[in-house]
């Protein structure tokens, strides 16, 4: 397992996940770019979002992913889980989830075997070990379900030396505990939990990014995020 400290070029003060997102909540939606995650979701060919009957949004944050799912025609039940009360408060105000729970995405209180979609976006870099997450997603999934993971690309973390971070009310840049997971770590953890990889895409620093962050020209064409779609085999017979 790679240690982020080997790549860190920023040296920001680092806080734990709950503390960091609790402080970032006021400006989160103004700083996270849609091209990082939602644009990748737009490119996926599976699953058929409008056909989802019951979805678990793990690490639901302020409800960005849930809002996107509703815009794609998801009319079924949507349950969200997040560690941070402030994020859940923002998600609750959007009104797109049927139920919101405070908790750990690796050990939720959601019912086993009941979801035909488990989805998470930009939380993997905060997990020291991916295996408990993929195992929990498998526990929640019904036969034939999909699991969609949007990840912060390890290449970009290593090439930029940049952790997940935010600017606090005093103007200080603050890092949130960040871990480096190779894409092979995702594959190993997913397959080990019983999933089958159905689709994978990578987002790169392109013109859409450079319009927003011109200082990132040196990262042009570097991968910055990744989407992995997993399938659980339908029940035999």
From TrEMBL:
The keyword Plastid does not apply. GO terms for molecular function: methyltransferase activity. CDD domains: AdoMet_MTases. This is Class I SAM-dependent methyltransferase. InterPro entries: Methyltransf_11, SAM-dependent_MTases_sf. One of its GO terms (biological process) is methylation. Keywords: Methyltransferase, Transferase. Residues 57-149 form the Methyltransferase type domain. It comes from the Bacteria. Coiled coil: none annotated. It comes from Streptomyces spirodelae.
């Amino acid at each position: 397992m790679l240690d982020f400290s080997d790549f860190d070029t920023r040296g920001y003060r680092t806080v734990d996940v709950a503390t960091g997102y609790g402080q970032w909540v006021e400006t989160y939606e103004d700083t996270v770019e849609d091209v990082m995650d939602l644009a990748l979701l737009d490119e996926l060919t599976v699953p058929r979002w409008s056909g989802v009957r019951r979805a678990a949004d793990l690490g639901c944050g302020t409800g960005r992913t849930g809002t996107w799912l509703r815009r794609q025609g998801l009319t079924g039940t949507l349950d969200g889980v997040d560690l941070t009360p402030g994020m859940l408060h923002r998600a609750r105000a959007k009104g797109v989830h049927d139920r919101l729970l405070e908790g750990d995405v690796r050990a939720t209180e959601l019912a086993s075997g009941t979801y035909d979609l488990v989805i998470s976006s930009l939380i993997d870099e905060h997990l020291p070990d991916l295996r408990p997450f993929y195992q929990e997603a498998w526990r929640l999934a019904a036969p034939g379900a999909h699991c969609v993971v949007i990840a912060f690309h390890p290449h970009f973390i290593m090439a930029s030396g940049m952790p997940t971070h935010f600017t606090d009310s005093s103007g200080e840049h603050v890092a949130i505990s960040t871990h480096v997971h190779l894409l092979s770590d995702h594959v190993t953890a997913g397959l080990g939990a019983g999933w089958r990889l159905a689709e994978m895409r990578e987002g790169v620093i392109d013109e859409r990014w450079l319009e927003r962050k011109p200082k990132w020209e040196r990262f042009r064409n570097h991968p910055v995020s990744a989407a992995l779609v997993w399938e659980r085999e339908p029940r035999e017979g």
